[in-house]
Amino acid sequence: QVQLVESGGGLVQAGGSLRLSCAASGSIFGIGDMGWYRQGPENQRVLVARITSGGNTLYTDAVKGRFTISRDNTKNTVDLHMNSLKPEDTAVYYCNAIVATSYWGSYWGQGTQVTVSS
Length: 118
Known about the structure:
Elements: E1 2-7, E2 10-13, E3 18-26, E4 30-39, E5 45-51, E6 57-59, E7 67-72, E8 77-82, E9 91-100, E10 104-108, E11 112-117
Parallel strand pairs: 2-11
Antiparallel strand pairs: 1-3, 3-8, 4-5, 4-9, 5-6, 7-8, 9-10, 9-11
């Protein structure tokens, strides 16, 4: 079994910063891409940022220049540093990882709420 545990959400004023962290644990032989998605009032889960095991990154246009994704392959963790937060960033943020156990599978965290007040 693989578990992804997120932390770091909360309430922040517009213009502020937050850091989200996600740690993967369990019977892990390897981890491929890791990423962060968010689900807002429209109830669609959309990509925020992804990072490959080699460190290549991808961001949705809405967060480019404000958010930074990073990972520590020795600790099986992925972070999302969020700066210049806007009210439209308000959502539940989910960690995702492609993990090898006895096979490759996609795993999700439980989600963490980020609320940005205007």
